[in-house]
Amino acid sequence: MARPHLVGPGLLVVVLAALVVGCLVLDARSTDAQRALYVSERGVVSGAIGALVGCCGAAILAFRPRHVVGVVLAVTGAFWALDGFCESYAVLGLHAQPTLPLTGLAYWVVSEAGSLLLVALPLVLVLYPTGRLPQGRWRTVAVAALVMAFALPLSLVLAPDSAIYDGRLSDDVVRLLPQISLPWSNAAAVATIRVGQVLTMLAMPLAAATVFARHARSTGVERTQLRWLLWAAIVCLLAGGVMLLDLNGPVGFGALVLALVATSISVVIGVVRPDTGDIDALVGGTLVYGGIAALFVLVDLAVVAGAAAVLGDRFQERQVTVLVLVLAVAAYGPLRSWLTAQVRRRVLGRRGERYEVVSALAERLEESGGLEQQLPALAAAVAEAFRVPFVRVEVLGHGGQGLAATHGAEPAATRAFPISYRGERIGSIELPDGGIRGMLSRRDHVLLVDVVRQAAIAARSSLLARELQESREQLVLAREEDRRRIRRDLHDGLGPVLGGVAMRLDAAGNAVESDPATAHRLVVQSRAEITEALADVRRLVHGLRPPALDDLGLLAAVEQQADRTRAAGLAVTVQADDLASLPAAVEVAAYRIVSEALANVARHADAAHCTVTLASGRADLAVEVRDDGRGIAADVVAGVGLRSLRERAEELGGRYEVVCPPEGGTTVRAWLPVGGRE
């Protein structure tokens, strides 16, 4: 996070603190009776609330200078605190003898201009979190909400004082107020004020609708920022319920303060550092526990009301307290745990039951058959565990072909999470991206990782079993194809040739005495045909295994291949250690990989030097071909040669990679398992 800018925000905090202290001093010089006479409250309450809002704006401006939301909160907080100071000053000025200067202006700020504070909340809602109005048709809705929010403040400022106060203030006080009203009748002004009240109140849900619209279209950091505001909205709803139960009491006032604090702090966190804490878990937990608390309050009210109806006047306040305590100890303790689990399961599924979810999934996957049955079982298990209406699971098979299973109807927006096994992506799982159930806390992510891990193991096992079966089938087919090819070559090629040679030798034997020239010609033809037959035999043997490996060994055969490449103008260095006692299949694979890699370097790399390294370990033979050429571009699709290298390594259960180091060139590596050695 950038270094905070403290000069401007610090000055604002000092001004706010001075206004609050001024409210305290002025309130101390007035009585409650005097405040009631002038329809006023203690100004320190408004001053403190304004200071809270202003400090939140200062915090945003300290880390995000000139951020529009921070400016709005700072101006709102300063004006709110000034409104509280004016309220304290106006009460003192009205009962002072003589009347203090600017008393009428101070009272006008409180009673009329102070209504401009109603614009602050819709303004923050439509500008949060970016400081700009939403795009598209929702920009029109946001502008309409702001215009409607100004309806009541403007009607109060422009209405005649007689229509606003309607006898609640003495004429002496009214005469002190600034006269800014339009020349219209009281009836028209009252009607305009009533319409302004309705429009200003309707501005709130319109502004809130823009927030939900932003949230539906947002992604990444902006969505996290909006969820902080969503959490504040939930807290405000819960606080509103408490305020209805104790409208003018200390509990209701405390709920109001809590709502303001929660909203201000959530806006600061959302703008400055939205990744603080786990907001998805906070939203889900607030919904669940807030709903449970509301339910218990309703139960308390029902029990107290029922007891009061039965006992009447004999039901005293002390008995109410005892009854509530008995309910809390005897019933609410056990009931709360059970009810919390039930509510969480109904709302959020079994996300908190990590062991049960993983074990149930393992059991379900074990009971399923192949991959075709496991994927629907996995989708159903995830949907049940997270209580989401849609889950889609896709597993990538051999060659990139996918096999998918879907549970439920697909919503408009989804989020995909990769399924990986040992660093290799083998599929994905999609969940809805929206609503309370679409929110995934960090604990939910951990659970999803465990579920995906189980799915990856099961899917990988099924894929390996399928690939093993396909490999066995291909092995049998390849073996039979080789047998048929060898039989055809022997039967159609070598067999007739040897048969013809035998017949010519018989004819030459019959003619050796009577026609020596013919016998000689037949022997020469037989020799030529035998030479061709020997070439065919060599070709057959070479197709089964390179002769150089049997004649020279792996290292010498690689050196021979390097000599052929050197003849093409490429400098090749071969480095190797003891390569004795290698399995025949490993020798063939290593030779073929080196030969193909050298051919690729000579054809495509435009390199000057190439190094071939063979390193034999206890478990594998490491083959590396490194050149100093131009490398392989990121967008180049692997050709037949590279695929052939990979297949030769993988068919032995080995590994293969092609990398292009930053310093240039290309490095081909393969690890071929050879088994343990003593």
Automatic annotation (TrEMBL):
Residues 585-676 form the Histidine kinase/HSP90-like ATPase domain. PROSITE patterns: PROKAR_LIPOPROTEIN. The keyword Membrane applies. It catalyses: ATP + protein L-histidine = ADP + protein N-phospho-L-histidine. The chain crosses the membrane at residues 43-63, 68-85, 105-128, 140-159, 187-213, 225-245, 251-272, 284-308, 320-341. Keywords: ATP-binding, Kinase, Membrane, Nucleotide-binding, Phosphoprotein, Transferase, Transmembrane, Transmembrane helix, Two-component regulatory system. Its EC number is 2.7.13.3. Pfam families: HATPase_c (PF02518), HisKA_3 (PF07730). One of its GO terms (cellular component) is membrane. CDD domains: HATPase_UhpB-NarQ-NarX-like. It is an enzyme of class 2 (transferase). One of its GO terms (molecular function) is phosphorelay sensor kinase activity. InterPro entries: HATPase_C_sf, HATPase_dom, Sensor_HK_TwoCompSys, Sig_transdc_His_kin_sub3_dim/P. Gene3D superfamilies: 1.20.5.1930, Histidine kinase-like ATPase, C-terminal domain. The keyword GTP-binding does not apply. This is histidine kinase. The lineage of its organism: Bacteria, Bacillati, Actinomycetota, Actinomycetes, Micrococcales.
